[in-house]
């Protein structure tokens, strides 16, 4: 039974590799999807927490600012009750001076007492502002028309607040009391906040009171209209010239017409989660790369072992089938060969018929070897270890091969020591050496017939190396085809057109059954087979007392 061809082996390897890689990719995908889904959920939850916190902080600031402004209005309203019809009552002036005290005053920027025409009736410190300029202010007109307190910017774009309350007489407004505040120093939220959190306070006209200077995104055109949209929604993203991902939330300061906007950069909030995800992905990537490297280092070895086990199982099945058929083959073939032997024995051994008789007997011996070899290959004999003189055994093998037709064309040389003993089975060793030398002789003659060499040569050398007995069989036949070395010892695999493919396989089995090994080396212009046998003090087999078995004959590849 032939072993799988190289293309089939490569296809099987590629299919196995694709299957394993697909499994690894699937595991890697599952491992990556988990952190990505977790990251998505964490980011969504962090966005919700971030926006809820922004809304809470904005309401706290708005309520704090509203309470502070209500306190300022109540103080001004209390003082306004003491202003007489002429707007110059002494007690009211004392109270206004207390409110403008440098250390404890609520209006350290000053207080103005205006009449309904915009004239300054009293101020601390002294202020000389034309009445027509005052009358043009929106906050002045609001107090006169609505007769209610107002908080606004002193001038468009100014950071100075005015807190104005009406001064009432009998059923009419006599004037107004105006307190001045520097928003950058005297209001909640005027101090710098955290790096990623911004607070902006502005009026309905878009004049920014806090902070100073305002952030760049609060100075973009249409920001006042954007704030009105923010008031109608639960917050939204705003454009930033600095590339920040800002989320803004707005509310009306209680008791005023001011707007408070709280904005923060979401990028900084999500950065920690993103870094954690990247760390997880890097760890997973490292694990995947490590797994692929380990796979690439070990899969071929494991797969080769699997193929070897499969090959041995197929070989056992082949030998089992061969063993059942070998009896029939040996019986039928040997009966015919016996008749042929009797017929050749009746031929006259004259000079004219000597060559034909010799050729017939040689072919009959080859067929007998083939039949008996198939029988013994299916049911290999057990090993018997006895003392063996290796040089003497090699001489016997070489003498037995000199009767082959190829022996007349091959220059066969032997380099043998006087003695080299070991423990082994002489019949199995003779079979192994017979096959190696026979193969070398046939290959050398074939190389001569093809014109590759002029003189076929085969050399046999016996030596001792590190306590082991070594037999080298060399030839000048050019060696087997390129890439065929890995399959030299496979049964039923041969490079010869008419070979059977059992010779080298039987040789390896016979040597390995005695604890030895067979190696192959390609030489310049030829090849070398090396048989290495264990030293004489190796443990002998327990079956050495069994009766001697029939010698398995040699079989050429």
TrEMBL record:
- Does this entry carry the keyword ATP-binding? yes
Q: Which SUPFAM superfamilies does this one have?
A: ATPase domain of HSP90 chaperone/DNA topoisomerase II/histidine kinase, Homodimeric domain of signal transducing histidine kinase
Q: What residue stretches are annotated with the Histidine kinase domain?
A: 328-537
The record's section on InterPro entries has:
HATPase_C_sf (IPR036890), HATPase_dom (IPR003594), His_kinase_dom (IPR005467), HisK_dim/P_dom (IPR003661), HisK_dim/P_sf (IPR036097), Sig_transdc_His_kin-like_C (IPR004358)
Give the Gene Ontology MF terms in alphabetical order: ATP binding; phosphorelay sensor kinase activity
Instruction: Report the domain of life of the source organism.
Output: Bacteria
**Which Pfam family is one of this chain's hits?**
HATPase_c
Question: Where does this protein have compositionally biased stretches of type Basic and acidic residues?
Answer: 546-557
Keywords from the UniProt entry:
ATP-binding, Kinase, Membrane, Nucleotide-binding, Phosphoprotein, Transferase, Transmembrane, Transmembrane helix, Two-component regulatory system
Give positions of region: Disordered. 515-557
**Annotated TM spans:** 20-39, 277-299
Please list which residues make up the signal peptide.
none
The record's EC number reads 2.7.13.3
| Catalysed reactions, as listed in the record | ATP + protein L-histidine = ADP + protein N-phospho-L-histidine
Q: What class of enzyme is it?
A: transferase
**Entry protein name:** histidine kinase
Q: Which organism does this record belong to?
A: Cystobacter fuscus (strain ATCC 25194 / DSM 2262 / NBRC 100088 / M29)
